[in-house]
Amino acid sequence: MTQTPKKKVEAVLFTIGKHISLNEIKKLSGITEDSLLNQYLNELKEEYEKNDSSLRLIQDNEFWKMGVKEEYCDIVENIVSDTELSKSVMETLGVIAWKHPALQADVVHIRTNKAYDDIKELEELGFISRIKSGRTKKINLTEKFFNYFDLPTHKKEKEVLKNLVPENIKDKIDETEIEIHEGEKAVENHKIKSELQKQKQEQLKTFNDAEKEIHLAIESIKEERT
Question: In this structure, are 152 and 94 located in the same domain?
Answer without folding.
Answer: yes
